[in-house]
Each structure stands twice: as C-alpha cells, then as structure tokens.
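Figure 3 (text version): structure tokens given as input.
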C-alpha cells in the first residue's frame, strides 16, 4: 500500500514536466499506404483468326445460279474500290490480295458470272460455319423537312459534342478504339446521352433536326434498319442514312419481350416478328415507350442522294445481294454463300454493311430493298444454316491453313 503515493507523485511530476514544455503536440499522422487502382486492359478483340478458319466446300458444289451470280458480281464490282484500299479488321485478307479478282471483275461478262467466283476466289469457313441470318429493309415512313402539326418526332444529325475520348481519359473498347461520349462542363469525359434522355429533349433546340417524323415507333425501327425514306404529304421522298451512333450498347427489344413472355403463339402473346413487336408497342403505348428505352443506342442520320441506301462500306446496298456482317469476322466487300432453312435467303451475297446487333462469326443481316414485300420478308426473317466466305485464292495458304 505504501507504494501507491509514490506512483501518484511520479504521475503528477510527469504532468508538470509536460505542462512546462507547453502544448502537447501529437506525432504527425502518416497516411496508410494507398494501392493504385488496377487498370484492367481489355481482352484482345475477337476476330476470324481467333475463331479459326478452314477450307470450305468447293465453289462448284454450291450450285451457284446464273442470275444470283450476276447480281453478286455487280455488287462485288461496286465494292472493289474499297476492298483494294481499306484494311481488313478480320485479319483474313490484305488490300492487295483483292486486286487480281477486282481487275478481272471489271470486265467479266454478266452472262458468265458463275464462272468468275471459282476462277478467282476460294471457299473459307470461319469457326464452325453455322450461320444465323435476320433481315432488314429500307423503311418508308411519314415525315417532313420542316416541323408541322402531326410531325413532332425529330430526326437528328450527329451532334458536334459526340466525340471519341482522348487517350488516357477512358479505357479503350474491346476493339481497341477510344469510346464515344462527350466532355462535360468540367472537362470530364462522360458516356453520351442515352435514348431516354434524347427522347426527353436533351438535344432539342440545338439545330440538329434534319427532318421530323410522324410516328416515334416507326422512327425507332428506321433507326434499327439504319436507313430509310421519309415520304412527305405532297408525295416527295427524302432518303436518310446512318451518320453515327451515340456509343451506347444496342439491345434488341424482341429479346426483351421474349424474356418477358410477350412473344409467342399463346393467348395474349404477339408474333415474334417486327410486325408483332410494333403491334405490341402501338397497343401498349406506355409500356412500349419504356420497352424502346431499353435500347440505349441511338442512331443519327444524314440526307442521302443516289440510287440506293449506303452501307458501312460506303457503297449502295442492293436488295437480295447485300448483307450486313461483323467486320471482325468477315472482310467487308467479300462474297458470302448462305445455305439456310429459309430458301429465299439462300445464295450468294456480298458483305457491304454492318449493324449494332450483327456481332460474331457467321452472323448476317440480309437486305431486301424497300416496299411492303421487303418489309414483310425482312421483318420475319430468321434463318439458320451454313455460311462460306469466298476469299482471294491463296488466302488459306498464306494463313498456313491446310
């Protein structure tokens, strides 16, 4: 017990000593070490080479018809100026590979078109060659150049603030390109406005309207098609085509409806075609509006002149001859043979276009032209079967494929 006062005296002495030294200054706080954020590089882009290529069946065995071959040769000839100058994202060909075939195509007689393809090209399968083919067409909807009563849906050109991110401001896309978006007032890169924001008017009053449509549902499907015609009340026609996209992902609303059980043949269900989807949206305007907004992707347009809508290759797409494809798996401009469970889509096509939903090996979108018949065929097209690419002779040998 006698030692307790001693302890108290020692404690009091320590306090007095510290007080004499003035204010007690705690030791400086050292922040804990921070770990820099991990930047995950995107995986290498999927291409035809990664999917694998093998020799396909002989061209002679495909049964190429005279009329089919003539139409394909005409479209192939139109593609040649681009084929021989642009790079091939699939990794399968080089511009110079196509020059001999393109030189020959320039003077090849149409009546002998069926002999052109085996003379200059060889068959190639990408992956397992199993194809899935849908259809598109050039829609014609009601529209005007200048806004007037009944025409209140804006058709926009590409906004000037839609840009690609500067290097270092955003991670590249899976294809290695800088993403599309916009810079805000603070100079920060942001995703671009989605469909809901644009439909709600975020771009209104900026002078971007090149025309006005009557029906938002019809314009939505014209965006899905990528090009179309606006027919005015006086009967004149304005042709518009794809000029750009907001950089946000495409969502097929047919797939959303199918997941929700809205498509099928049962009571209260709608046909699983474009016509059935449009019918649902028109009959359920509020739910239909919300459904369309599931697709954040938004397409901007420009006015077109010429004898046909332009595809991504920069040449006119032709009915029953042009398909959209994924350029990571098909050289744009290359012929494609399709053998499907939909006979009307069998035959030789030329890959001259791309599409937001057309992704992956052996995924194609067949073009059927304009008018009621084209709309009916394209809207109900869903074919499965086999696909064979026709590439310049020597391609397989150069790639080391035996």
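Below: residues designed for each position.
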């Amino acid at each position: 017990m006698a030692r307790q006062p001693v302890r108290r005296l020692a404690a009091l002495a320590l306090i007095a000593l510290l007080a004499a030294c003035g204010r007690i200054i705690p030791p400086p706080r050292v922040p804990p070490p921070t770990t820099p954020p991990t930047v995950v590089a995107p995986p290498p882009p999927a291409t035809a080479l990664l999917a694998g290529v093998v020799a396909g069946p002989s061209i002679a065995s495909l049964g190429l018809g005279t009329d089919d071959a003539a139409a394909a040769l005409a479209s192939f000839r139109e593609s040649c100026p681009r084929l021989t100058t642009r790079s091939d994202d699939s990794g399968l060909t080089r511009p110079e590979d196509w020059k001999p075939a393109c030189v020959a195509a320039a003077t090849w007689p149409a009546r002998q078109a069926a002999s052109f393809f085996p003379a200059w090209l060889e068959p190639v399968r990408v992956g397992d060659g199993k194809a899935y083919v849908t259809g598109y067409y050039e829609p014609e909807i009601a529209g005007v150049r200048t806004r007037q009563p009944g025409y209140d849906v804006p058709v926009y050109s590409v906004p000037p603030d839609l840009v690609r991110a500067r290097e270092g401001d955003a991670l590249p896309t899976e294809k290695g390109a800088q993403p599309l978006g916009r810079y805000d007032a603070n100079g920060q890169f942001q995703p671009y406005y989605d469909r809901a924001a644009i439909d709600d008017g975020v771009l209104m009053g900026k002078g971007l309207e090149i025309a006005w449509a009557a029906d938002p549902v019809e314009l939505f499907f014209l965006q899905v098609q990528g090009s179309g015609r606006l027919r005015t009340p006086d009967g004149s026609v304005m042709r518009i085509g794809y000029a750009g996209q907001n950089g946000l992902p495409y969502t097929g609303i047919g797939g959303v409806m199918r997941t929700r059980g809205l498509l099928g043949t049962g009571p209260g269900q709608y046909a699983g075609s474009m016509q059935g989807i449009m019918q649902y949206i028109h009959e359920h305007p509020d739910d239909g509006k919300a459904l369309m907004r599931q697709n954040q992707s938004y397409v901007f347009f420009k006015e077109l002149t010429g004898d046909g809508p332009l595809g991504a290759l920069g040449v006119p797409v032709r009915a029953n001859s042009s398909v959209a494809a994924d350029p990571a798996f098909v050289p744009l401009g290359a012929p494609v043979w399709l053998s499907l469970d939909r006979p009307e889509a069998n035959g030789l096509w030329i890959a001259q276009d791309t599409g937001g939903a057309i992704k992956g090996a052996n995924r194609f979108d067949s073009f059927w032209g304009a008018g009621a018949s084209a709309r009916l065929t394209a809207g109900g097209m869903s074919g499965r079967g086999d696909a064979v690419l026709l590439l310049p002779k020597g391609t397989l040998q150069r790639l080391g494929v035996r």
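The chain has two domains: 48-135+313-398, 138-303.
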